[in-house]
Amino acid sequence: MADGGNRRHPPNKRLTWERLQRGWSRDELVNQVAESMRAHGDGESGLTAHTVRRWESGERWPEPRFRKHLVLIFDLPASELGLLTPEEREFQPQEVTVPSGALDAMVSAELRRLLMSERGGLGRQQFLRAAVAAGLSPLLASVAVGEADAAWNGRGHARDPRAVESYANATAAQRALYWTTPAETMWDAALGHLRLGLTLLGQTTTSREGDDPLAAAVAETALLAARIAFFDLGNPAVATRCFEQAESTVDYAGDHALAAAIAAHRAFVPGFAGDGVAAQRHLDVAQAHARFGGGPNLRAWLHCVTAEVHARTGQGESSRERIRQAEHALGTNGTDPEWLDFFSPARLASFAGNAELLAGRHEAAARWLDRSLAELDPQADKQRAVVLLDLAAAHAPTDAEHAASFAHRACDMLSDRPYGAAVERIPAVQQALAGTPAGVELVERTRALRLPAVAVD
Description:
By secondary structure, this protein is mainly α.
């Protein structure tokens, strides 16, 4: 790594972050630039990964011909990629003003509408298109999105550290409450807290250089909302919109571990739908960020997520290898973030059991799942219901009555606290027990199980 004394410029964290957000190595960015230059008739690039490293470390400034193609590749303005010199930034026009109250209201309303709109997404381009469609001129729209996206470009209100601390404390409290609070109640609380966080971000000065504690707390809240929508309430469309908000906000936090967790969680959506290619794109982003942050639990969890996605998309052997890598990762060095409370060795065992189950290895699955059931935390009732149903499916081919006993224990839990990720397992158990008296009884038992609806108004 370059010595700080060799730097001629500050490290370009924005360029590094945007590269990682796409899951690209420096070599892959070199290839993207070369393809763009050839496509636009600009000849061969001669660019190397070493030069990209020097751009990111601040040892070298990208030449204009490369800056052009970086803007094209990332589809972001040069200012948002850290490609403008201080002298060039002085040309930014300042003459356009918008009444702050009206802009506050427009930005806040548009943030909320975009978060829950059917089209989803909260990127800069989506905001610009929506603002223009709402009647703002392109220039005023650009100012508006700049205000929301860069928090007033340094002209906003000073941030009260006590407000940030209070918001972060509430985020931590919701994290703890998630495990024991009914999903519909938790959803309403998380969504309200997310809207509050977005409003606070829009009213105060935020740096795009990262390390923003408020942005980190808002991103974590958006991730929690996404997890509730997907795993608890079984609504992948709403979950995707929350994941997109989390990705947008974590940009300001510059938190690689949190960015990795968001990307890996998002991989579950296409992974559960059987789209391995789309899921792998998110997993690549997660792995890229994980190289810069996180500890043994985060690394092991990422291997487990990959194992489940691979198991659900017909890559059984790769899935087993990922479980082995997860076991190894638990013994590596590093410090995990406090918010990583959704993974443990017991949950590794449940990931492994499910992977074996999906591969048709029922005895191996049962061994892993027995271990998980014995080691799960007393508050882990959601995961316990999942493990019980997987155990039912694992035992169904050889002992229908034993399998049904596991399934009924899970149903007892789900009757009190529905959990989408567990309910999603029930059809496989019913199919495995089809044609048996236990199977008929289970169908009747599960008919009344329903997930709460997702309210977004």
